[in-house]
Amino acid sequence: MSTTDERLRVEYVTDPAAAMSRLAGADRFGEYVMYERPGEWVFAADPIGGIELDVEELRVTWEGQTTATRWEGRPAGVVDRALGSLPLDGRNAYGWIGFEFCAWAFDATQYLDPRTTLVQLMIPRIEVRIGEFGIRVSGATPAETGDIHDLITESQETELPQPHPTDVRLDPTAYADRVAKAVGEIEANRYQKVILSRKVDLPFVVDIPATYRLGRAHNTPARSFLLRLGGLEAAGFSPELVASVDENRLVTTEPVAGTRAFGRGAEIDMAARADLLTDPKEIVEHAISVQTSFAEMASVSDPGTTAVSDFMAVRERGSVQHLSSTVCGRLAADRSSWEALEVLFPSVTASGIPKHAGIDSVFRLDHDPRGLYSGAVVTVSPNGALEATLVLRAIYQTTEGAWLRAGAGIVAQSKPQREFEETCEKLGSIAPYVVRAQ
After folding, report:
1. Is 132 exposed, middle or buried (0-12, 13-18, 19+ CB in 10 A)?
2. What's the confidence (pLDDT) of residue 320?
3. Residues 259-278: pLDDT tens digits?
4. Mean pLDDT, residues 238-247 taken together
5. What share of the chain in percent tops pLDDT 70?
6. Of 101, 121, 172, which is closest to residue 351 (Cα–Cα)?
7. Which residues pair with 94 in a beta bridge?
8. Average pLDDT over residues 101-123
9. What per-residue confidence (pLDDT) applies to 243?
10. In whole angstroms, what is the distance from residue 9 CA to residue 136 CA?
11. CA nearest 326: which of 251, 248, 274?
12. Res. 32 pLDDT band, cuts 50 70 90
């Protein structure tokens, strides 16, 4: 196979989101995962291998050959070992993890359909990176490299796509009733907090790459992603990391809890910020989330290395602003990156407190299986570094249709109508930018 590792003759890309949307929308490179982290955008495409884990079966593919086996143990260890068995030769892996990945750690497997996908990973042949360094392409043929150059150049000259209106207030899921039931369970001391969500089905086919481009122009995410992998298309603007483990074994998670609307004018936004910082319900919700994240981090870190920084900072994320903190620790020598992810997954701000009872409540009270919603998009390096970003503020599509989803943190002080309004505020980060497929 002819490959190149070439910096294209482009010094700076003014609109990386347009470039990534164009590469994805060109439909020339098979399945792909696009991932934006601070300072870098990567488009990984045309898998030469992959790992798919569902409730009952592990399927490992390499260069066109697939081996399927029944698996035992915990999903994180199974995936870690499967990746280790492949001749990656320095290649990265990209993919997604569904919320149901957590069921083994929290004794909730009885709620799962046997066909539920837990993990989808791919090892790409082609990677395109964009940053201050310009553009770098690896794994592509010379002809493909030229095509990539042309597509990126063309993308910089196109206008933003036009959205299709979406009504996010329609709710066939009886969300307010489910919130009221959760409040009753909290008052009965079954748990302290749970995140309940609602799904908004879209009555048309969506152009996911175009939606990503338009949405990214109006969002300020911690990370963003765009993918087509394992029969699922998705794009989103993540407000936080579930977990990252860097090459020096520093583990980081970013619990976010506490929300107000944003983008309604400077005076209104500042008033909402002040209200957020003084609202006892929001402060309690955030504080118990940080406390849980700290305990989880300490369980996988060297003693004395766990710390909280930026406690209760206000971070603006598209149509909302959140209370956010950062929790870090040094990964213990006898722990792997996947074990750290398993302990921190799902994000405490997308599940419940305590997690065991909260997750049980999610499986009982949420209207549909979550899948990628409140799961993670993940990148894995051959040196053991790993990053998993929380999937919220996203759009999803399969051959069965397209949908949005959003949730709110329910505590004893919650009011069903206010929590419904919070889901509408969060859907405002993606719903106004949905582009209908032509």
Report:
1. exposed
2. 74
3. 787 878 888 888 878 878 88
4. 93
5. 97
6. 101
7. 122, 379
8. 96
9. 96
10. 10
11. 251
12. very high
Asked if residue 343 lies in contact with residue 71, where contact means CB atoms within 8 angstroms, the answer is no
Tokens of 27: 């439909």
Q: Look-up: residue for tokens 């039931």?
A: 181
Please return the burial class of 98, using the count of CB atoms within 10 Å of its CB with bins 0-12, 13-18 and 19+.
buried
- 100 class by beta-carbon count within 10 Å (0-12 exposed, 13-18 middle, 19+ buried): buried
Assigned token pair, 412: 């004893």
Token readout for 355 is 């997690």
- Type of residue numbered 162: Q
Q: If you compute the radius of gyration of the chain from its CA atoms, what whole number of angstroms results?
A: 21
Share of the chain above pLDDT 90, in %: 79
Residues 283 and 330: their CA atoms lie apart, in Å, by 27
> CB under 8 Å to 117, separation ≥6 — which residues?
52, 53, 54, 98, 230, 371
Q: What is the DSSP letter of 409?
A: E
The encoded tokens of residue 94 equal: 């990209």
- As annotated, the active-site residues are 240
Looking up tokens 């481009």 gives: 213
pLDDT for the residue numbered 318: 64
Reported residue count of the chain is: 438
- Buried b / exposed e across 69-81, counting CB within 10 Å, b at 16+? eebeeebbbbbbe
List the Cα angle 364/366/368 in 5-degree steps: 105
| CA dist., res. 109 & res. 102, Å (int) | 9
Q: Residue 46: what are its φ and ψ, rounded to 5°? A: 55, 75
pLDDT at 344 over 90: yes
Q: In the Cβ-directed half-sphere of 250, how many Cα atoms lie within 13 Å?
A: 7
Task: Name beta bridge partners: 26.
Answer: none
- Determine phi and psi for 161, rounding to 5 degrees: -70, 165
